[in-house]
């Protein structure tokens, strides 16, 4: 069910910066309207909105301020897409965080700098990285069914969806879970014969290695874990693969495409992992000592 994006409409969470911004920019250049759903916009995203105003005769970009942990605000994205463009054809729940200090396994809730509140019984990281894409996928499926048309839901997972990493175990858990979620929805693209009248819905994903975005470069605590040869991948390269998730016939539902030094499909079973594709991410030697030191201090009651 390859979809030509020209004349279509996309909702993209997290498109105020990084990979999702690059995906939004690429879609707009191909004639696709975009609802940019994010909590804030970087200057480059503000410039993009100016380049594709709602009064344009061609592709249009609209900003909808969205906190992806608030389900009512996720509903609003679809309302905006319907009001301005008659609905969405592509929905990318791309917003994500890389285990920040304010929601981090090694800084338990209630222990600064964590802002996770023990009384809330929630981790913000999981609300953003896992609950949000699951909920957006539910909403997108309902949207496509109610509009009686096919749709694409490209997700953003990570090489961390296959590889363990001691410093960021909750992030790793969220991406492992998202891989399984995407693969489980593969049948939506090919309904059984008795349900052939249902619209085809493609759910697939891109799995980048370490990406050169402000998420890394503007956060010193993250840059400290980067080795001498980080092997950066550009967000533009990832966006091109994401476009392929929508437009290419062979990247069917359930497909996960890894993007690093090479681009390859990640198999569900017996896959060699990121190293097998030449996409291993190296880290600064000794970075894990911080985790051990933290455990030692708690053990000693310091």
Automatic annotation (TrEMBL):
Signal peptide span: none
InterPro entries listed in its UniProt record: NAD(P)-bd_dom_sf (IPR036291), Sc_DH/Rdtase_CS (IPR020904), SDR_fam (IPR002347)
Cellular-component GO terms for this entry: cytoplasm
Gene Ontology MF annotations: oxidoreductase activity, acting on the CH-OH group of donors, NAD or NADP as acceptor
A Pfam family annotated for this UniProt entry: adh_short
UniProt keyword terms in alphabetical order: NADP, Oxidoreductase
The keyword Transport is assigned to this record: no
Entry superkingdom: Eukaryota
Similarity annotation: Belongs to the short-chain dehydrogenases/reductases (SDR) family.
The protein, known as: NAD(P)-binding protein
Organism ancestry: Eukaryota, Fungi, Dikarya, Ascomycota, Pezizomycotina
């Amino acid at each position: 069910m390859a979809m030509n994006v020209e004349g279509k409409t996309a909702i993209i969470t997290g498109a105020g910066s990084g990979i999702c911004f690059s995906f939004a920019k690429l879609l707009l250049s191909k004639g696709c309207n975009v609802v940019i759903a994010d909590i804030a916009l970087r200057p480059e995203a503000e410039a993009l909105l100016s380049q594709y105003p709602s009064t344009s005769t061609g592709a249009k970009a609209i900003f909808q301020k969205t906190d992806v942990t608030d389900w009512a605000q996720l509903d609003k994205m679809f309302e905006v897409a319907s009001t301005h463009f008659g609905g969405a054809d592509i929905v990318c729940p791309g917003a994500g965080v890389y285990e920040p200090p304010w929601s981090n396994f090694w800084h338990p809730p209630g222990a600064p700098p964590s802002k996770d509140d023990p009384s809330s019984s929630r981790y913000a990281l999981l609300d953003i990285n896992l609950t949000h894409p699951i909920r957006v996928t539910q909403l997108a499926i309902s949207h496509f069914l109610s509009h009686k048309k096919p749709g694409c839901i490209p997700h953003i997972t990570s090489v961390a969806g296959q590889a363990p990493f001691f410093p960021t175990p909750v992030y790793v858990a969220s991406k492992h879970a998202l891989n399984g979620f995407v693969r489980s929805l593969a049948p939506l693209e090919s309904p059984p014969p008795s349900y052939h009248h249902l619209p085809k819905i493609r759910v697939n994903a891109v799995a980048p290695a370490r990406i050169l975005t402000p998420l890394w470069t503007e956060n010193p605590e993250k840059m400290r874990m980067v080795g001498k040869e980080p092997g950066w991948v550009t967000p533009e390269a990832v966006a091109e693969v994401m476009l392929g998730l929508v437009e290419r016939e062979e990247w069917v539902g359930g497909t996960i495409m890894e993007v690093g030094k090479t681009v390859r499909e990640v198999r569900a079973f017996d896959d060699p992992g990121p190293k097998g594709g030449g996409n291993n991410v190296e880290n600064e030697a000794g970075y894990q000592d911080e985790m051990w030191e933290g455990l030692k201090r708690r053990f000693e009651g310091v």
